[in-house]
Amino acid sequence: MKIEIISTGEEVLSGQITDTNSSWVCQLLEEHGLQVSRRSTVGDRREDLLAVFQERSQKAEVIIVNGGLGPTVDDLSAEIAAQALGESLVRRREWVERLEEMFEKSGRKLNPENLKQAMLPPSAEIIDNPVGTACGFMIQLNDALLYFTPGVPYEFKRMMTHEIIPDIKKRFHIETVCRLRRLHCFGIAESRLDGLLRDISLPDTVKLGFRAHLPTIEIKIMGLSKSEETLTVEMDRVADAIRERVADRMIYEGDGSLQQEIQDAMIARNHTLALAESCTGGMIAEQLVHVAGSSAYFERGFVTYSNEAKIESIGVPPELIERHGAVSAEVAEAMARGAQKTAGVSHALSVTGVAGPEGGSEEKPVGTVAFGLATPDKVHVQMLRAPNWGRTRIRTISAAVALDMLRRDLQGLDPFGHYDLTRTVSTKTV
Amino acid sequence: MKIEIISTGEEVLSGQITDTNSSWVCQLLEEHGLQVSRRSTVGDRREDLLAVFQERSQKAEVIIVNGGLGPTVDDLSAEIAAQALGESLVRRREWVERLEEMFEKSGRKLNPENLKQAMLPPSAEIIDNPVGTACGFMIQLNDALLYFTPGVPYEFKRMMTHEIIPDIKKRFHIETVCRLRRLHCFGIAESRLDGLLRDISLPDTVKLGFRAHLPTIEIKIMGLSKSEETLTVEMDRVADAIRERVADRMIYEGDGSLQQEIQDAMIARNHTLALAESCTGGMIAEQLVHVAGSSAYFERGFVTYSNEAKIESIGVPPELIERHGAVSAEVAEAMARGAQKTAGVSHALSVTGVAGPEGGSEEKPVGTVAFGLATPDKVHVQMLRAPNWGRTRIRTISAAVALDMLRRDLQGLDPFGHYDLTRTVSTKTV
Fold this sequence. Notes:
The structure is a homodimer of 430-residue chains. The first copy, chain A, is α/β, with parallel strands linked by helices and 430 residues long. Chain A folds into 3 domains: 3-171, MoaB/Mog-like domain (Molybdenum Cofactor Biosythetic Enzyme, Chain A, 3-Layer(aba) Sandwich), CATH 3.40.980.10; 177-253, 2-Layer Sandwich (Alpha-Beta Plaits), CATH 3.30.70.2860; 258-429, Maf protein, CATH 3.90.950.20. Chain A has 15 helices and 18 strands. Chain A is elongated, with a radius of gyration of 27 Å. The mean pLDDT of chain A is 94.
């Protein structure tokens, strides 16, 4: 089936708003086995809207049109759809009643602008929107079915999944079921995943997709079949094969994050955490606190950016810094021990590194980072070298490696992982 | 002039890669007075590429085609351009020589894949790319000039500004000069800017544009005129009028950031800074350390997430927390004083608030945040209420307000700003 997207709106066209809706819907359609062949973006000008509806409806069978259903004068989608059809807009009773109901419930007054949202081409089929005032609608124009959808992401996503995807499947007699599993891993380069998973034989019903969210990578297992039962078995088999190959670099499945995984595991075990961050500069704390409920295990963080801070706030011996330098396994160890003791917690993580652009030496070039993980009975220390991909990426990778040490330890694994992106300089457990 | 964009590539079409190039180029063209009327996105399939080149070249006068110039088999732009023209690809000596030169200089060996990048339609005009191995090229197809450009953002941007924009201006006899000034402000709601600046009379040569980068807003002053001299005067007048209205909510002009402004001012005055963060949880430290060179003034940060951390790490009196609660002007003041004293610095910022989703009360609902700024002679404390727009946005706004207090103080302004987004509960200077 030939399926296309039309995004509308001046701010989308000019790039003021990043068009996340169309990325999202392309992926949704792909997960349902429907491949988009073109996306067109136009502004709010009548002639451009009319041209894109007329032209694309002669080329595609299904078109998702996004945006332009709001109550303001530059929301023109319904008007131009009517013009393309050679019809005049009419006020549709069904939607006026829904609007009246909606406004009465919330105690607000229905204003004339909202009534504009019930003006549709007479031949349009209304598509329900229980979470907003703009109804969607579907028209047949030339060779295509055009589905008009609201720009508000929450309303758009609900309408696509609950109304439009089932409608397309029904109209085009697509009897397949779709299932999606998402595995997230850390430490594998995207360029190596293909090779790593190449020997997994995929049934015709299952496709793989990768998506990098630096520093983690998502492996999507997309299943599409007429039999839900067989599909589940087949997808489980593929997921098991992936897990076997990705092994300890797999961090979680489904929604969530490395930070959420750590939070859940720490709270379940009654552990508490402190941080001593130098080059990451608060990035790890910020990522942990981002997750609601983090106060149940995250006790405090020290951003010990200067040597004095390392010495005074968490008791790093000055002679260690003098002898080994602030970026050293010895100082990382002392930082983790110091944070653990000062905060009176069960676990502490430390990071100290050369994030650049200045400050590198021949022995410790930009990208050299030392990590410490203090647990109730041991301290694990490692020094890695990240590629010099710039300050921000070095810091981002460092934060992820530190958290991954903790994740691995919590899962009973060796805290020292092998990461494609970094070279291990040294490891030590004391 | 009718100008369009064509973006190519499976990963751009599927939304795996956010198409920042086309947003960027739309804005660049707008700054030069050229308005894009449509953007089309297609994957790497031959028939889709051919169709989009054929169709759009009958509608537009200028088309910027982005992507597909790389050395791999799915880089098809040149091949399909030749097909559309009814030509066969030929190896272009000019570019082979440039490649040989480039590779010799860097001591690498030219491989056959790179020679593919010199295969162009015979009628194409080569566009120089001094920073990559893919040359750009221009063809005349149907009614349009098609400019083919590389997908690598750095190469694309250089080619657009240095080669293609001047070429378009020359060919279409556009003799105007373009100037852009960007003013960044904090604390004004985007919805209010229009009203605030409405009475500024704009000459025909000057346009305004707004762009929100939460929590700051950028005001773009775009000038377009035949006389550079008059334009500068006119733009200066508009900029002055905007500065007058935005007043103390203006934070900087041009490139940069609030964090960079603060860093420059702190270093110039030999000041040093410590942080005591509760609800922002390291976000402020992270933003400051993001700027290279921050170690010259940023001494350390305390992420005092628990009450014990506030008491033990920076000496907040426990009875203050007991009497007023951890989110209070009193505790914010003690946190700022404590961080200043503990770190031995000239300045300290503190933040303590209810970021939610849990933890709010009737007196202190989610969104209530207290701030402290300790300077060598005074401590400024304020308590604000941010709208409950979710944990992340509350924390983002809080980090910006804290930094803005410091920015205002460094600029000799009252440290307490009036922000459209927040309601001031109390302010105090001791």
